[in-house]
């Protein structure tokens, strides 16, 4: 007798349902994820979905974990400006393609309602900024990493999500120059 954990049918069901949930979350946001829609998209009954994920938050948590697990960042080359530029343009593309902003909006909107959602917000932020944080950490003093990260990601979020304007290469280059200039100015006074 096989246990549920090693049963390939259960593993396939879990994969299919989480894939369907992630697709719905990216396409429609949190409001588009219901047990009925997930079941329909995954090809399973609502009862099956409810059995493994009793709440909508269970479904969304599994989907966000999967999204974070497969997240990739452009490889670093060792050239600070070039690596920041590549990573920021990749981040801007993720924002402008419309999926990352929906995920972020969902967790930001609901973070004060649940410890689980706060943890998801942290997971998304840490996963999404891991590449940039690593690049900055390899080149800057530790005291400059988090403020630089906040300036870089914050500027892109405002530009793409709030202003609705694409983050062009010229914008990213100017942003990198301004942030690195501020770091150099702080170093020279310290």
From TrEMBL:
DNA-binding region, residue intervals: 34-53
Residue ranges annotated for the HTH tetR-type domain, each copy included: 11-71
GO molecular function terms attached to this record: DNA-binding transcription factor activity; transcription cis-regulatory region binding
Keyword Transcription regulation among UniProt keywords: yes
InterPro entries in the record: Homeodomain-like_sf, HTH-type_TetR-like_transc_reg, HTH_TetR, Tet_transcr_reg_TetR-rel_C_sf, TetR_C
Keywords: DNA-binding, Transcription, Transcription regulation
Record bears the keyword Transcription: yes
PANTHER family: HTH-TYPE TRANSCRIPTIONAL REGULATOR BETI, HTH-TYPE TRANSCRIPTIONAL REGULATOR RUTR
Protein name: TetR/AcrR family transcriptional regulator
Originating species: Labedella endophytica
